[in-house]
Design a protein that fits this description.
Strand content: 5-15%
Largest sheet: 4 strands, mixed
Low-confidence stretches: 149-168
Strand order of the largest sheet: 3-2-1-7
Shape: elongated
Distance between the termini: 71 Å
Radius of gyration: 35 Å
Oligomer: single chain
Number of strands: 7
Structural class: alpha+beta
Helix content: 55-70%
Length: about 290
Amino acid sequence: MDVNTWWIWMLLAAVFLSIEIFRSKTPFIWLSLSAAVTGTLALLDIEISGQIAVFLNLSGFLILLEKRFNEKYVFKKSVMTKDRLMSDENEAAADNIFRKSGPGWEIRYGDKSYTIKHSIGLEYIRNLIREQGNWIHSSDMKRMIAGESVSSGEHDPGDQSMRQKEDIQYENIIERLPLNKIKDLRDSLEEKKKADNFSNPEERAEQLEQIEYLDKYISSVTDNKGRSRKLYDYAETDRKSVSAALNRARKSFVEHPELHTHFQSFIKAEGRSFRYLPDRPIDWLTD
């Protein structure tokens, strides 16, 4: 047991540690640790040449390991920070936001922010905003929404379980259901109305509105004997469907006067097409 050598290594470990304390971000912590390990080997009567070899190799390995770690971590951190700053800058640059966020919609117009319940009409408005100033045919608008629904992995609204969801609107369902199923759906709502089987007044009002909508739709596609019309103008039905969805969406803004006035004023219809054209160019963040 070489106690004298042990003391030398321990003294070196203390000196290196003191330097590390007063000068942070230096490799002296690894020199201190290597000296302490080497001092332990001195107690095992390891030759001095072996002790020096252990000290040099161990300290060199730890310093190199720290360097590689810092290079990788700092690079990754700088990339993440840069991406985050770019994202923050993009969002900060957009004074106005109209995008889907979770189960609802995040909307910011001017200096006010809103959270609005999801509806198909809001998706139509979002797409009109993206095509600001351009007329979009109602059938194209419906195809745009259908494409987004498929790409996002949503289920077919014709499925019974989907029809029970609050965020699935009937103007979207009727596109994918045959007429007999739409009549069955309307009858089931009528039975529910007669039984007054609603959880709250808000649900009752909403379901009555849906019954009225389905009645109008069935009337438009059937003759006076309830039979399907052979010649059926799908473009006109698309126009009515999109128009109804937009009106429902704008109704959801009623409690927010500035938002309601803006979209009531600047979403216009001409023939079977719709356009969002504000009185001045407005930058919106929609993603």
